[in-house]
Design goal:
Structural class: alpha/beta
Strand content: 15-25%
Largest sheet: 8 strands, mixed
CATH topology: Rossmann fold
Distance between the termini: 27 Å
Helix content: 25-40%
Order of helices and strands: EHEEHEEHEHHHEHEHEEHHHEEH
Radius of gyration: 21 Å
Bound molecules: adenosine-5'-diphosphate, iron/sulfur cluster, magnesium ion
Number of strands: 12
CATH superfamily: P-loop containing nucleotide triphosphate hydrolases
Length: 336
């Protein structure tokens, strides 16, 4: 993997992104029972950048805020704070409908469940053609048909499959259809939220290989989300490890597996089996705290073997260590 080219603006940059949800009980219930308001900080100050043609992955246990990042970057949530920039332009500053529509075309999402994201009443060719129609990308019906046929071939299906309905396909094939649909608006950037988590392991590898092939062929940029380090290992250039709405380590992929720095990253790595030594898969220790009332200081401190008094008081910020950025007092103090 190459080092960042200094002059090139990243395709996507996220600065101090915050997404809070009000999860309070309804007003009357709160008044009667004298209950406070509760705010859940699903994403609480996230910053990262992705260069064109690269894959940046977010990894972390369930509930740490990965999907919320994906949905907020895709514009499905309205962020509580922070900035999202495409090629240096702040999305919040784009007012013209044509600019917003252009961004929507260039940025597509692939979801975990190909069952939920495909309308069962539509033929596959219409599922795939819908974005082509919405963005006016084909001059005629014949051109649309040709584009759909080409997309089906690109994802390893046959043009004849366009005549069928989604339920006639296996899970892996349905995810191929979802990918063809995501590609039909000719995007540059795909947000992939656990795209293989619902699939059998053997099928997962096929879909990941397809996504890597498409990235090479089409020069795509990916924000890739998974709770599974084996999947992350397959696709990533850079990795952000998330814990309770924040990034605790950002690192090039090779560095994450060779030289993990943050205690949480180390814990996650211990959960994957050692292929050579046959080490057993170890479940992560301890439980993720309730995100409505996260622990003070470093949110990881109740589970951390290196926690000190400072960790219980002061929240660590990301700082540079070699090629990585890590938010940990023990790393900063040279204790680990
Ligand atoms: N629309 C919402 N309203 C309230 N809470 C939400 C909403 N979406 C997500 N959350 C909460 O935000 C946290 C992060 O969720 P999510 O982003 O789905 O995590 P992940 O994808 O890493 O499993 C969870 O505690 C979840 O319950
Ligand atoms: S800051 Fe402290 S508690 Fe948090 S990961 Fe580092 S050593 Fe552990
Ligand atoms: Mg999720």
């Amino acid at each position: 993997m190459s080092e960042p080219a200094v002059s090139e603006a990243p395709l996507l940059e996220v600065r101090d992104l915050k997404m809070y949800f009000d999860v309070s009980k309804p007003l009357v219930t709160r008044l009667v029972n004298r209950m406070p308001r509760y705010v859940l900080k699903a994403v609480d100050g996230l910053s990262f950048a992705i260069r064109r043609g690269e894959t940046f992955s977010l990894v972390g246990e369930s509930g740490c805020g990965k999907s919320t990042v994906a949905r907020t970057v895709a514009g499905l949530n309205s962020a509580t704070g922070g900035e999202i920039l495409i090629e240096g332009k702040n999305l919040a500053g784009l007012k013209r409908k044509s600019s917003l529509s252009d961004i929507a075309r260039r940025m597509q999402m692939v979801f975990q469940s190909p069952y939920a994201s495909l309308d069962p009443r539509w033929r596959v060719r219409d599922v795939i053609a819908e974005p082509i129609r919405a963005y006016g990308l084909a001059a005629s019906k014949a051109e649309e048909r040709a584009q759909v046929a080409e997309l089906l071939i690109q994802v390893g299906l046959s043009p004849r499959d366009g005549e069928k309905f989604p339920h006639e396909f296996s899970g892996g094939q349905r995810q191929r259809i979802s990918i063809a649909r995501a590609l039909s608006s000719k995007p540059e950037f795909l947000i992939c939220d656990e795209p293989t988590s619902a699939l059998d392991v053997s099928v997962q590898a096929q879909i990941l290989n397809l996504m890597t092939k498409l990235q090479d062929e089409l020069g795509l940029t990916y924000l890739f989300i998974s709770h599974d380090l084996a999947v992350i290992d397959h696709v990533s250039d850079w990795i952000g490890v998330m814990y309770l709405g924040r990034i605790c380590e950002i690192t090039p992929k090779s560095e994450l597996f060779r030289n993990p720095r943050h205690p949480y990253t180390r814990m996650l790595l211990e959960t994957i089996p050692d292929l050579k030594g046959g080490r057993e898969r170890k479940p992560p220790e301890g439980e993720v705290p309730n995100p409505i009332s996260p622990p003070p200081g470093c949110a990881f401190h109740p589970r951390c073997a290196f926690a000190s008094e400072r960790c219980r008081r002061e929240r660590p910020e990301l700082a540079t260590f070699g090629p990585a950025r890590v938010a940990c007092h023990a790393v900063e103090e040279g204790r680990i």
